[in-house]
Amino acid sequence: MRIDLNGQTIETQARTLADLLTEQGFESPCVATAVDGDFIARPLRPGTLLNDGVKVEVLSPMQGG
Amino acid sequence: MFYGVDLKSRLMLGTAQYRSPQVLLEAIEASGAEVITVSLRREGAAGGAFRDLLAKSRCRLLPNTAGCHTVREAVTTARMAREVFGTSWIKLEVIGHADTLQPDPFALVEAARVLCAEGFDVFPYTTEDLIVGEKLLEAGCKVLMPWGAPIGSGQGLRNLAGLRSMRAHFRDVPLVVDAGIGAPSQAAQTMELGFDAVLLNTAVAKAVDPVGMARAFGRAIQAGREGYQAGLMPERDMASASTPVFGLAELA
C-alpha cells in the first residue's frame, strides 16, 4: 500500500497507525500523530486503520518562537 | 498571572534560530526566563538534541501553532502539542498574511473558541484591536498577546498609542507583547507601559552574543517592570528646573 508520510510517498506493509510508527522506526512516546489532518491520540493509534493514499503526519518537539 | 501560574520572570523566550542547543540552553539560563516556546515539526536532524535540551531546561513549555493558516490546522496542531508536550498551554497563532505574518483575527477567535472549550489555556497571538481582544476573552482566553511589530522584524512597539489603549481597556487581563521586539530598550518600554510580560525570540537568537543579549533582556524587563510599579513622572512640554532657584547666588 502506498501512503503519504510527512510529505513523502512511501510503500508500507503496516495496516494500522501504530504498526506504521514501529515499521518506520519512530519512538512512539516522542511523537504526535495526525491522519488526513485530524489528530489521532496515542491510545487510538492501534485501532486506526490506514487506507491507500492516506496522509499521515508524525511530528516531534522542535524549536519554536 | 497566567492561568493560575505565577512567574518570577516576565520574559518568555523562543527557542528557534540559535547556533547550537548549547547556546540556546545558556541563553535560557542567562535570561532567567521560566517559560520557553516550542513547536511541532517533522523530525529533523536536531530532533534528539532538542528533546534532551527540553529535559535539561527546567522551564514551563508554551507550544505554538506557528505556520498554521486555518482554524483546522491550528486546532489539530494544538491537540497534537498537548499530547506530546503534556501541557494545556498553547500559543495560538493563525496567520493571515504570509509577508506580515499578521494574525487572521476571524480564524483566531474561532480556533480559540474550539480550544478553550476543550480545556486548553490559550495564549492568542493577536493585534492591538480592542474588539478582537473582547471576542477572544468571550471565547474563553484569559491572556491576550498583542504584537509589537511583525514577527522577526525587530521594530519594537509600532503602534504605541494602540498598545496604550489596549492596556487601559483590559485593565485586569494579563497582556503579553509578543513579536517584533528587537532591543532591550523596547522590552523595557513595553514593561513601563504596564504590560505583564514580553515574548521574544529573534532578538536574542540573532544577536552577536545571544547569551549576553538574553541577560540584557532579562534585566531590561525587570527594570521596566520596576519602573512601572514605581510610577513614571508625567511628561511636560516645557522645561522645569530641577535644582532649586531659592538660594541662587547673584553673580551677574
Report what the structure shows.
The complex is a heterodimer of chains A (65) and B (252). Chain A has one helix at 17-23, and strands spanning 2-5, 8-11, 32-35, 38-40, 55-63. With 65 residues, chain A is mainly beta. Helices cover 11% and strands 37% of the residues of chain A. A five-stranded mixed beta sheet of chain A has the order 2-1-5-3-4, with no helix packed on it. In chain A, a hairpin with a 2-residue loop joins strand 1 and strand 2. Chain A has one helix and five strands; from the N terminus they run ββαβββ. Chain B is an alpha/beta fold and 252 residues long. Chain B has helices at 21-31, 47-56, 71-85, 105-117, 130-139, 160-169, 184-192, 202-205, 210-230; strands at residues 11-14, 35-42, 60-63, 89-92, 121-126, 145-146, 176-178, 197-200. In chain B, helix 2 links the parallel strand 2 (35-42) and strand 3 (60-63). Chain B starts with 10 loop residues before the first strand and ends in a 22-residue tail after the last helix. At the A-B interface, strand 3 and strand 5 of A face strand 2, helix 2 and helix 3 of B.
> Gyration radius of chain A, to the nearest Å?
11 Å
Order of strands across the widest beta sheet of chain B?
Answer: 3-2-1-8-7
Fraction in helix of chain B: 40-55%
Mean pLDDT of chain B: 95
* Count of DSSP strands of chain B: 8
Name the pair of protein chains with the most residues at their interface, and give those residue counts. A-B, 22 and 35 residues
Largest sheet: number of strands, sense, barrel closure of chain A:
5 strands, mixed
- Distance between termini of chain B? 59 Å
Low-confidence stretches of chain B: none
What is the rounded Rg of chain B?
20 Å
What is the H level of CATH, i.e. the homologous superfamily of chain A?
Answer: Beta-grasp domain
User: How many structurally independent domains of chain A?
Assistant: 1
* Name of the level-1 CATH class of chain A: Alpha Beta
Helix count of chain A equals 1
What would the average pLDDT of chain A be, to the nearest integer? 94
